[in-house]
Every structure is written in structure tokens, then in C-alpha cells.
Design brief:
The complex is a heterodimer. By secondary structure, chain A is α/β, with parallel strands linked by helices. Helix content of chain A is 33%, strand content 24%. The longest helix of chain A has 15 residues. Chain B has 14 helices and 20 strands. Chain B has 3 domains: 160 residues, no CATH class; 114 residues, DNA polymerase, Y-family, little finger domain (Dna Ligase, domain 1); 70 residues, no CATH class. Helices cover 31% and strands 25% of the residues of chain B. β3 of chain A pairs antiparallel with β16 of chain B, so a sheet runs across the interface.
Chain lengths: 214, 470
């Protein structure tokens, strides 16, 4: 077979099975959601939809919400679906959320009493497709639980952020894993895992004004 | 004045059958023990060769796994009352024909659908499917005639539908004597005389007939033909919408109850629909020996379908495991309201309903308190400037000077490097409700890198962390 024939075969395969073949960065099944922070855009591109993003930060309050809120605010205004907060560690304060552009009538907060209920609610919400974004603070998850939730996220096509204090094992099937460290003018983002791209690290300057030009 | 009669030829076995999840051969007998005879058999038993009138001993010899049951008058009355409600959606008078039990008749003179030929019979057939009972229906100018036509169904297609008086005058003389609701001895004697059809009975001399058999056959004949009027009192039923299903074996787990609950939901749902009503709250009672468990389910959307209600009940019941054996399940629709369907927009895709369904599912399992939205409150004290509200009711004024995380309980702070900056936001007030505050708020960066919202209590002269600019 000549090299041109090989190329033709590969091209046919690529056009016939766009989702099965690994194509590096072009392998986005569904378009993601813009992150709205220029430095973060260089590091992670878009937030992946239909997949789980793991955000690890040892402390609350170093900018983890400001990092994701512009995308969440955009979804809350663009889509008639819930922004679901599952077991947030503190009270999400309405005045600040409204200032960040989040449509408060789309907000839904869950406080499950048991871990099992939380996993059930997460799976149901991710799978239902009735949530445009899910922000969750789950307990440490086992491999099978990760896989179930990942499959549910694929079915529901929502933006999912799972916040942890400690990173989980490297084998966990998340689409994107960020480790956050405090920095003077913003937050230091360490991209530990990203589908179709190499790990990277950089500083994201977070302005205090979250007002969105939507 | 045409009547529609609905007869239930296998009511006894079918009531028993429809409360069971698995299909088994069933027969209703007139007495316990092997001395009885079969009164009704279900389809499976019929396929196995069993017929009504067989002795129990013979039936059991043919089909050892045959399940036997006896007539349950309460249950039958309940099923008839359920059907009476359905029939009341057609016309304002429903009667129970006691002589040809179990049969209901409804006077359909004013019903506009009568003109549409057999549309009424199709309605009845649809209800029969929904209630899982086999019925035969007939339409005739007299209630007795309609019932006999329903029972007869023998003279070819179309014979059970005869609303016109002229057609009826030709049809009723063909009805066989064996169907007449007289004493069995009278029927046997008439047959012995060679009288096969009503026409032959009509041809006999009335005075002779009355002398020999008493007034009964003539009265039946006159009521059947419409020669004399046949006044009957309307059937009444309890006003509340409920279904009670006795379980034939005691059940102490959810999976066993699911089938019976499904049945009850379908029954009530059908009733509500025929009355153009819908209910948003449901009461379920599970009765055991000396124990009872009851629970109310509230749903947001009155149009919630049966499957969804069943799922919601499932989660409710799974949260509270049963610790006793249930023998009766009773379901009631509370406070039904008028409901004539929802107006659907041309391009609506049901996404909005799906969103609310998710909320409903979450509420049933997690409890209504654990599912909420947040809203701002016009109060300048940050602790009281927010509240939990029902999902969808979230709203609030934007204030960029507030942190994204508010701590439920302010944390006391003892940092040596902390001092009051030049610019602070002073928040004072609350004397009117006894929760008086006087605080100076400012932003402070914790040495660990956390952006905190800190205040100094002006009375105690102490610092507290109240939120994070996360």
C-alpha cells in the first residue's frame, strides 16, 4: 500500500468514527464551556462537558469558586436548567453570586445527610440532563463510584466540578484534574491531568470584580 | 330511553388475579373443600381444560396447581362502585341490576356520544383494559334488555348494540329463555313445554301463564320488552377517591407491595381522569395485624403520571423499611381538584417538566428540607441577609463587596498581625429584634493565602472571620 493509500484509510476511519479514535485536542465530543479567564484558557482550554472536573485545594477560599463561576454564571443565564450545589461546605452567599452573574432562580442546593444519599443524588442529577452545572463537595470516592458518576455525567452532558481537599488516585477517570495553590494575585493552577494534552502549570490572576460581559 | 349495561362475567377470579404479580391458574368455587363446584375460571385454567360447573375434586385432579378462592362480596362491591363512578361520567343515573349480578346499567338517553354509533362501547372496552377486568356490554331501550344482550352476545355482530325501539321490538323476542332472570325451576319447566325464546313465551296466554308459574315470568318479560316501566334507584358510592387492595399473602417488603400499589394508582388515576380531576396529594395506608403505617405524598404537578408516582412512592418506602407484615393496602387521592389537562406550547420539549421532576425525586429521597434554593433578604446584617427558599424561588440583589462563602458561624480569630485597616464597612443595627450588631467589616488576606472577610466586634473588641472570597 502506498503512503497516500494509508492516509486515505486513516482519514476514512477518522470521519466514520470521530468519537472512537484518539485525535489529541480535537477529540472533544461536545463543545465545552468557555472559562472566561485568559490565563486559564491557555492551561485548560474549555471546561469539558459531559465529564467530571476534579478540583483539589487544601483550603477553602483561595479562589476555587471564582475560577469556575464565570462559566457557571454563563450557563445559568443561557440554559433553563439547574445549577446544582451538592453539600457545599459553607453558605453560598446570594449577594455575591448575583454579583458574579449567577441567575439565583436556577440555583438548587442539596444537603444530603448520608454519603450514600449524596452519591445517589449526584448520579441522578448528572444522568437526568436537568442540570447545566453540578458543583459538588463529595467524600473520598472509590474507583467504581468514580466510574458510575463519570458514566452518568456523559449521559447528562452537564458541567461537573467535584471539589476535594486531597487528590485521589491517578487512575481515576476524570477528564480534568486541577490542583490549586494560593498565590499572591490570584491562584496557582496545576493541571495534573487533561484529556488529550500534557500537564501544565501556571498562575491565574483573579480580579475581584466578577462582573461578566454577557 | 336507551340503557347501557356492563356485565362482569369473571369478576370474582379477575379481582383476585389482578392483585397478583404472577399469572396462575385460578378458579372461584362455591364452597370450601373438594365438594364444591367451580363458579368461575380464569383464562389459564380455561386453557388447561377446566370449565365452570366442574366439581372441585375433578378440577384439582386435572390441574393440581390450581388455586381456589371463594366469593368476596366486599371486594366485588368495591369494584362495582369503582365502575359505577366511571359510568357516571357518561350519564347521571347508574343502577345495579341485582337479579343479574354482577351487572351495572346506565341510562344514556342524553349522552351525545350515543349518536356516534359504537363509540360508547369502545369507551367501555378501554376502561375494561385499564381496570384489567373482562366485561361485556350491551345497549338496549330497557335496562334488563341491555343486560341480557350483554350476556347473550350470540346473534352475530352488532346484536349487543340496539338503542332504537323499532329494532328492539324485533330483537328481544329472539332472546333465549335460559337467560331470563327467573327461578331455575320456572326456566326448566318452560323449556320442558318447548318454549325456547321470548317470542314463544309472549305467544302463550298470559292468564294461563300467571296461573301456572306465578306473576314472575310475565313481569320479567314486560320489563324486558319495555311494555311496563322499570324504575330503579340510582347506585350511590362513597365520595372520597380511594382504592383498597387486600393482599392475598402478607407482605413485608417493598417489592411485593409494588404491584398492588401500581394497581391502586392506575384505578384512581382512571377515575380522576374520567371526572376531569387531578390530585396533588396522596395518602397511602398499609395495614397489618394490629399495626398501621400511613404516609402522604405531595407532588408539584397534578399531571404526574402513574409510573412517576410509583417511583416516588418507591423512594419514600425504601427510606423507611417495613417492620411488619401488610395485609391491606389503601390508597386515597386527597383534595382532588378540577383538571382538564395542560396547555402545551407548540415547541415545548418537556425540559422544564424534567427539571421539576428531578427536584421532586430529590425531595422524596432526601426530604424537602434538604433540597432548597437561596435568596437574598433586605437586611444589612450579613447573617440575616439570606434565607433558604423553595427551589425556583431564588432571587436577590447583587453586592460585589460580599464574599462567595459565608460561614454559618463566625470563627474567632487571634492573629497577632491583625489590625484594623483605614477603610472598613461598618454594619450596625438590629436593636428592633434583639439581635443587635455593631461590626467593622474588612478584607484580610490570611498568611496561608485565603482571602477572608473579617469583622471586628466593636463591643467585644475581638476579630472574627465571617466568610471567604473563594
Amino acid at each position: 500500500m502506498s503512503p497516500s493509500a494509508h492516509k486515505a484509510v486513516v482519514n476514512t476511519l477518522l470521519t466514520k468514527h470521530p468519537q472512537r479514535l484518539w485525535q489529541g485536542l480535537n477529540n472533544q465530543r461536545t463543545p465545552g464551556v468557555a472559562v472566561h479567564w485568559p490565563e486559564l484558557d491557555l492551561l485548560v482550554g474549555d471546561w469539558p462537558r459531559g465529564a467530571i472536573t476534579e478540583v483539589v485545594s487544601a483550603q477553602d477560599g483561595i479562589g476555587e469558586l471564582r475560577l469556575v463561576l464565570p462559566a457557571v454564571a454563563e450557563l445559568s443565564q443561557r440554559e433553563a436548567r439547574w445549577i446544582l450545589w451538592v453539600a457545599p461546605p459553607h453558605i453560598p452567599y446570594p449577594a455575591a453570586l448575583a454579583a458574579a452573574g449567577v441567575d439565583l432562580s436556577r440555583m438548587l442546593v442539596l444537603h444530603p445527610r448520608k454519603d450514600q444519599d449524596m452519591l445517589w443524588a449526584l448520579e441522578l442529577a448528572l444522568r437526568s440532563g436537568s442540570c447545566s452545572a453540578v458543583l459538588a463537595w463529595p467524600p473520598a470516592l472509590q474507583d467504581t463510584q468514580w466510574r458510575r458518576l463519570q458514566l452518568a455525567a456523559e449521559a447528562g452532558n452537564s458541567l461537573a466540578f467535584f471539589f476535594f481537599r486531597q487528590g485521589s488516585a491517578a487512575t481515576v477517570p476524570v477528564a480534568l484534574r486541577l490542583e490549586l495553590h494560593p498565590a499572591r494575585q490570584g491562584v496557582d493552577v496545576d493541571v495534573r491531568k487533561r484529556r488529550g494534552a500534557m500537564p501544565a502549570r501556571g498562575m491565574v490572576a483573579l480580579s475581584d470584580q466578577l462582573a461578566l460581559a454577557l | 330511553m336507551p340503557w347501557l349495561a356492563v356485565q362482569f362475567p369473571h369478576l370474582g377470579v379477575e379481582l383476585r388475579e389482578r392483585a397478583q404479580a404472577e399469572a396462575v391458574a385460578l378458579a372461584m368455587v362455591d364452597a370450601q373443600g373438594s365438594a364444591g363446584t367451580l363458579l368461575q375460571v380464569n383464562a389459564i385454567a380455561l386453557q388447561a381444560g377446566l370449565r365452570t360447573g366442574m366439581t372441585t375434586a375433578r378440577a384439582l385432579a386435572m390441574l393440581p396447581e390450581l388455586q381456589l378462592c371463594t366469593r368476596d362480596p366486599d371486594l366485588e362491591a368495591q369494584a362495582l362502585s369503582h365502575w359505577a363512578r366511571l359510568l357516571y361520567s357518561l350519564a347521571p343515573q347508574v343502577v345495579l341490576l341485582e337479579e343479574i349480578s354482577p351487572t351495572l346499567a346506565v341510562e344514556i338517553t342524553g349522552n351525545t356520544r350515543l349518536q356516534q354509533g359504537r363509540a360508547l362501547l369502545e369507551d367501555v372496552a378501554a376502561w375494561a383494559v385499564a381496570t384489567r377486568l373482562s366485561v361485556s356490554a350491551g345497549v338496549a331501550p330497557t335496562p334488563l334488555g341491555a343486560a341480557l344482550l350483554a350476556q347473550w352476545q350470540g346473534a352475530g355482530p352488532g346484536s349487543s348494540f340496539c338503542p332504537g325501539a323499532v329494532d328492539w321490538a324485533l330483537l328481544w323476542p329472539q332472546i333465549p329463555i335460559t337467560l331470563l332472570p327467573c327461578a331455575a325451576t320456572t326456566r326448566a319447566a318452560l323449556l320442558a313445554l318447548g318454549v325456547r325464546h321470548c317470542a314463544q313465551l309472549q305467544a302463550l296466554d298470559r292468564a294461563d301463564l300467571a296461573r301456572r308459574f306465578g306473576p314472575e315470568p310475565l313481569r320479567v318479560l314486560d320489563r324486558l320488552s319495555g311494555r311496563v316501566s322499570d324504575p330503579r334507584s340510582a347506585l350511590s358510592f362513597p365520595a372520597d377517591l380511594e382504592a383498597s387492595i387486600p393482599l392475598h399473602s402478607e407482605i413485608s417488603h417493598w417489592e411485593g407491595l409494588r404491584f398492588a400499589l401500581h394497581r391502586a394508582l392506575q384505578d384512581i388515576h382512571l377515575l380522576l381522569r374520567t371526572q376531569a380531576q387531578a390530585s396533588r396529594s396522596w395518602l397511602l395506608q398499609l395495614q397489618g395485624r394490629g399495626r398501621q403505617w400511613s404516609s402522604t405524598l405531595e407532588v408539584r404537578d397534578p399531571a404526574t403520571d402513574v409510573e412517576m408516582l410509583l417511583t416516588l412512592w418507591q423512594w419514600r418506602l425504601q427510606q423507611q423499611p417495613l417492620d411488619f407484615a401488610v395485609h391491606t393496602l389503601r390508597l386515597q387521592a386527597l383534595a382532588p381538584q378540577h383538571w382538564s389537562g395542560r396547555q402545551v406550547a407548540w415547541w415545548q420539549d418537556g425540559a422544564e417538566e424534567a427539571c421539576w421532576q428531578l427536584v421532586e425525586q430529590l425531595r422524596q429521597r432526601l426530604g424537602a428540607v434538604a433540597v432548597h434554593a437561596i435568596a437574598g433578604v433586605a437586611d444589612h446584617r450579613p447573617d440575616y441577609a439570606w434565607q433558604r427558599v423553595p427551589p425556583g424561588a431564588g432571587q436577590g440583589e447583587a453586592n460585589p463587596a460580599r464574599p462567595l462563602w459565608l460561614l454559618a458561624q463566625a470563627r474567632s480569630l487571634t492573629a497577632p498581625s491583625l489590625h484594623l485597616p483605614a477603610q472598613v464597612e461598618r454594619i450596625e443595627g438590629g436593636w428592633w429584634d434583639g439581635r443587635d450588631q455593631s461590626r467593622d467589616y474588612f478584607r484580610w488576606r490570611h498568611p496561608a493565602g485565603v482571602q477572608c472577610w473579617v469583622y471586628r466586634d466593636r463591643r467585644q473588641a475581638r476579630f472574627y472571620v465571617h466568610g471567604y472570597f473563594a
